[in-house]
Design goal:
single chain, Lysozyme, globular
Length: 318
């Protein structure tokens, strides 16, 4: 009996899917199941596959060599940003602002107005660190040199006058303002003198009294005042005035500067200064009855550091 065509088609599909050749095993029907029937069976298998019949590969897939593994990638965050203060070459916290020096001796670097300015400029001092950490510090340093004084002398001044070179606002009781604490009259006189001596400075100033509240502009006037004080002391026999020598000029005025610079450490400050009331003495931290010149010098040195106190005010002439 001959097989049913549908059964044969199913057998063809099964054999085609398994990759086997289509061979008729029953001798009686071998002559009737021709090559054409085989082609039809393969075509039927293809149609069935195209219509969604799922197939699975014969045997597991294999790979050649070691499998490639995923490599995790991580973004490097790097170090946090750090900016060195403009113009600074060293950070030195050896002296606390307005406090006692931890490494400085705290003793006077000038005795009797001998003009003992050192050859160094105190560039590593706390006062220089304070000024150069400000946005205007580099401009102030350049202004000092343009006027003719050492940057450390200017830095020591703002360190003392404005508690670490802060920008102090105006007060209702006085015209003393700014990072260098200058009177309106002194500021106006000094800024005009500086520009007259060096006209190129005019391009760097804020006009009028508003310039006092711009530290870079006020630094020009303060530098000029320090230069005037150092020159005055030179004219009175102090050959190379130090920052500590000129501090008396800046703090107590031209009339008292020479006496303070020449005084001995054991002299009373009140005996070297005229024109101040008891209240004004105390506002400067001086007890008229007991504060000596040596004690005052030590207090100034403690605020700015011994290297700055001993530094010369005037730039060395080439």
């Amino acid at each position: 009996m001959q097989s049913h065509p549908d059964n044969e088609r199913c057998l063809a599909v099964s054999m085609a899917l398994s990759g086997q050749a289509m061979i008729a095993k029953r001798p009686r029907v071998a002559q009737g199941w021709t090559k054409a029937h085989t082609s039809a069976a393969v075509l039927a298998a293809a149609v069935l596959l195209g219509s969604g019949v799922a197939t699975a590969g014969v045997g597991p897939e294999t790979t050649t060599g070691v499998p490639v593994l995923p490599v995790p990638m991580f973004e490097e965050t790097g170090l946090p940003a750090f900016s060195m203060p403009v113009g600074a070459t060293a950070l030195d916290a050896s002296t606390a602002t307005g406090g006692s020096a931890s490494t400085d001796s705290g003793t006077s670097t000038s005795s009797g107005g001998t003009g003992t300015g050192s050859s160094g400029d105190g560039a590593g001092s706390t006062s220089m660190t304070s000024m150069m950490s400000k946005s205007w510090g580099d401009a102030a340093s350049q202004n000092a040199q343009s006027v003719g004084i050492t940057p450390v002398a200017l830095a020591a001044t703002c360190q003392i006058e404005a508690s670490g070179c802060q920008t102090n606002p105006a007060s209702a009781s006085t015209t003393i303002t700014g990072s260098f604490q200058m009177l309106d009259s002194t500021y106006t006189s000094m800024i005009n003198a500086a520009v007259a001596a060096n006209p190129s400075l005019a391009a760097n100033i804020v006009p009028g009294l508003a310039g006092k509240l711009d530290p870079a502009t006020e630094s020009i006037a303060a530098a000029q005042y320090l230069k005037q004080g150092a020159t005055s002391l030179q004219n009175n026999g102090i050959a190379n005035p130090s920052v500590l020598d000129v501090r008396g000029y800046y703090n107590f005025g031209p009339g008292n500067a020479v006496a303070i610079a020449r005084a001995n450490d054991g002299d009373l400050m009140s005996s070297q200064i005229s024109g101040l009331t008891a209240a004004q003495f105390k506002s400067n931290g001086i007890d008229p009855a007991s504060t000596t010149v040596g004690q005052w010098r030590a207090s100034v040195t403690a605020k700015i550091g011994s290297s700055a106190a001993a530094a010369p005010v005037l730039l060395a002439k080439s």
